[in-house]
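Quick one: structure tokens for this chain, please?
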Amino acid sequence: MKGQTKGWGTTEGESVNFLALCLLTLWLYLPGFLANTFAMMWGKWLPKTGYGPWPIDGGRTLKDGNRILGDGKTWNGLVGGSLTSGLLCMLIAAVVDVGSMATVFDDGSTVFAHPLTGSEGAWFDTGSASISAFVLGTFLGFACLVGDSTGSFFKRRRGLKREGDVSSKAPLLDTLPFAIMVFLWGQLFLGPSVLADSQLILPMVALVAITPVLHRSFNLIGYTIGWKDVPY
């Protein structure tokens, strides 16, 4: 991020620490990375109120005899998870100093940048910081869950089935599709926002590589506090 890129306040020739870039990328995409957890909560808790679950595939199977996605992918999880990611992005936008929009990696700056940095004129810029952040977060959450459903589709094609509340175990298909999808959609659809900056591509690759570890850690926490039925 060299030069006066998008008004972030960086100076020509400034060296940016790669670890800081990775942390910045993870921070900016946090609503997307946590969408799986939010979807799981909606998929698990909403039915306890008597509503749902509503499987996305409607119980249908393909010619291989396996479900399209399985009972684990529900409309309540997809919609609820996406909207909750939007609320998280709103919260982040509310608590992060808007001044960080102009000082990313400048002297005294922080990796906790405002999520709307550089988004003036973007399709999700509504003129209201709160609404724009909600739309952005919902988009990131939806991208994540589309990627997660894509992983489930290929798991079903491999014959890996869900048994009741216990999902089949496939570490790479459970983690890489959602991470790749949320970063890919960010790069493709979020320009001119900081989230689409090309200098975040290498940090994105690094984060995709360690996503299985991050995902496993989040799942262990969820299992420990009773949010998940299995620690994976």
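The chain has seven helices and no strands.
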